[in-house]
Every structure is written in structure tokens, then in C-alpha cells.
Amino acid sequence: MFACLDSSFLIDFLRGDDNTRVAYVRLKTEGFSFATTTINAFELFRGVDKRGRIKAEEEAVRRLLSRIVVWNLDMKAAERGSRIYTDLEKGGTPVGVNDCLTAAIAISNGCQRIVSQDTHFDRIPGVERTSY
Fold it and tell me: Selecting from 3.30.2000.30, 3.10.180.10, 3.30.420.40, 3.40.50.1010, what CATH number does the domain 2-130 have?
């Protein structure tokens, strides 16, 4: 059973936020393993680049990503992500492309739990958001 860690969680975790550590321990105790997506990895590295590629930050991101499963965007997830995005857009409640792809990758890997502070995940069918 996996929980998919969104970039907001990963960033806060890297910054030493106590709430992320409490959530991590709680989920681990409940039997969850942890994963993220290549989309979230992109967002983390984009943050490193925007801040001037500080070596210690880059190494921290690489270390964190090496300790969890990182799911890739494949054709199945790309198609599902497109449907999620289009359906929400048609319904007047759009969500960003990166978050649609993150949700689609998680769902395609049998994961319905996304750990994030971003409430827009609540609008994506097929996933349950866990806040921290």
C-alpha cells in the first residue's frame, strides 16, 4: 500500500517541517510505503535550479528521491492525466497539468492516497488527499 508524496510535502520535508515528519511516521505506522512521481522530481529540481543550483540542496533532493519509489509517466498515465485535466476543465474546476499528471501516475500504479497540502487534489476523482 503506497502513499504518493506530492512536491509540497517533499519540499516541506526537506525544509525540516515538523508536520511532515509527524505525517510520515503516522502513515508508516499505518502500513504505507512511500512513492512520488517524475513530475514531482521535476518540480523539486526546478526549485533547485531557480535558487541557483546550490549543491547541498541538489544533493538533499537526490538523497530523498533515492530513498522512495519514483514512478514514471507512461502512456497509460498520460492518457488518464489528459482525461482528468479535460474533465475538470469542462466542469469549470481546472487543476494544473502537473497535478493531473501526478494523480494519474499514482492511480496508474494502484495508489489512491496523495499526501499534500494542495486542496485541489480533492477535486480529482480516484484519489484521496491526506493533509499534514
Answer: 3.40.50.1010
